[in-house]
């Protein structure tokens, strides 16, 4: 999938902007606060009708203006397609092929993007909660069943915690809830296991590429419940009996102690834990590889690569890693990268790319 061009009107600090893009690699160069991230955000907005950094759409409208819009034309394996999205105080309007759509769900999905922003480093450095959110978002995109099971699990978990907080715990009631939790949990755990194996397959290959074969990345699921079963039904029974075993301790502590709400993932480079022992560059490469694995998942899903948005990733990667990243990726995936200095860009990749200098929204 290729984004051919973009036209912005009153979007963030851009009054009006027209750009034609390179099919492989596009680099946005500019000092701080000139509009590089805003430009990536506009592509993200064109794809998903929302921003990656604010839930308040009106922040996208240029100061003192009424309406912001982004138009762009994409080329897919099948056709060229104009897309258009605008936001004003009256809400959002979206057009596909110049025709306004009634619902945003009819709009989203034409342009697919994967974005890597500096915050994504938290997939490696942050708390288990960040990683669970990452798994839930990714698994949820691929599997509707997963989302249903997760929301079922979370609802029952809240109920169980409420019961455990009461002075006289109703064990019969907890038993009923545990049975429900075990049912949801078994599917959640198996889906996560499957997803993490797929991520590992792709991420380790990408990490190997970027590090020029010097590092081998492993991604390991660390389920809170140590289980042996491989099928849903026997896993459910296994979980149920584990939950029964922990009940006494849970009553003592007044909260649910075991289950997939305490799961985590670990990353290893050449067998050491990246979160604890990894350098900045290794942590960044790991987070990046895991995120780039998403490109392959989407490719598996829809048969086409999305476009890739990379915000501020180059500064912490050395020249070898940078050039491996950008050369290996740009041949498959149209890529948009921001940087504060052209000297960040390795000279060996200067052919087959287009650079844009950004200065105060121009
Ligand atoms: P850095 O290198 O620091 O990440 P950047 O080039 O990515 O910088 P952006 O975040 O794209 O910077 O742009 C920030 C600029 O956009 C700031 O000067 C900010 O004031 C301006 N800006 C943000 N929102 C709006 C808006 N709604 N209207 C006008 N200007 C805006
Ligand atoms: Mg920025």
UniProtKB/TrEMBL annotation:
This is DNA replication and repair protein RecF. Pfam families: SMC_N. The RecF protein is involved in DNA metabolism; it is required for DNA replication and normal SOS inducibility. RecF binds preferentially to single-stranded, linear DNA. It also seems to bind ATP. The lineage of its organism: Bacteria, Bacillati, Bacillota, Bacilli, Bacillales. GO terms for molecular function: ATP binding; single-stranded DNA binding. Residues 3-341 form the RecF/RecN/SMC N-terminal domain. CDD domains: ABC_RecF. ATP binds at residues 30-37. It is found in: Cytoplasm. The gene is recF. GO terms for biological process: DNA replication; DNA synthesis involved in DNA repair; double-strand break repair; SOS response. NCBIfam families: recf. Transmembrane segments: none annotated. One of its GO terms (cellular component) is cytoplasm. Keywords: ATP-binding, Cytoplasm, DNA damage, DNA repair, DNA replication, DNA-binding, Nucleotide-binding, SOS response. Its main location: cytoplasm.
């Amino acid at each position: 999938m290729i984004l051919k061009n973009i036209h912005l009107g009153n979007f963030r600090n851009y009054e009006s902007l027209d750009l034609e893009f390179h099919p492989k690699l596009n680099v946005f160069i500019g000092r701080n606060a000139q509009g590089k991230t805003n430009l990536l955000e506009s592509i993200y907005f064109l794809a998903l009708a929302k921003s990656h950094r604010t839930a308040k759409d009106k922040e996208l409208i240029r100061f003192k203006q009424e309406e912001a819009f982004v138009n762009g034309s994409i080329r897919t394996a099948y056709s060229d397609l104009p897309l258009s999205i605008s936001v004003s105080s009256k809400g959002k309007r979206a057009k596909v092929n110049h025709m306004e759509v009634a619902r945003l769900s009819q709009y989203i999905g034409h342009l697919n993007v994967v974005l890597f922003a500096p915050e994504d480093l938290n997939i490696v450095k942050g708390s288990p909660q960040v990683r669970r959110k990452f798994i839930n978002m990714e698994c949820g995109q691929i599997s509707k069943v997963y989302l249903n099971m997760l929301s079922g699990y979370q609802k029952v978990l809240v109920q169980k915690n409420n019961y455990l907080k009461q002075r006289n715990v109703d064990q019969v009631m907890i038993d009923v809830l545990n049975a429900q939790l075990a049912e949801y949990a078994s599917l959640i755990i198996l889906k996560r296991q499957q997803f993490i194996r797929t991520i590992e397959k792709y991420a380790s290959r990408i990490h190997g590429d970027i590090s020029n074969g010097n590092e081998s990345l492993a991604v390991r699921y660390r389920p809170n419940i140590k289980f042996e079963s491989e099928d849903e039904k026997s896993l459910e029974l296994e979980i149920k009996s584990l939950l029964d075993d922990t009940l006494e301790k849970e009553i003592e502590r007044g909260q649910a102690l075991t289950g997939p709400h305490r799961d985590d993932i670990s990353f290893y480079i050449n067998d050491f834990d990246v979160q604890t022992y990894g350098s900045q560059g290794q942590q960044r490469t790991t987070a990046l590889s895991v995120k780039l694995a998403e490109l392959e998942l989407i490719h598996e899903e829809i048969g086409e690569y999305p476009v890739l948005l990379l915000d501020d990733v180059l500064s912490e990667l050395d020249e070898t890693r940078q050039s491996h990243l950008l050369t290996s990726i740009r041949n498959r995936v149209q890529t948009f990268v921001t940087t504060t200095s052209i000297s960040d860009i390795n000279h060996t990749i200067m052919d087959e790319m287009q650079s844009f200098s950004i200065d105060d929204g121009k």
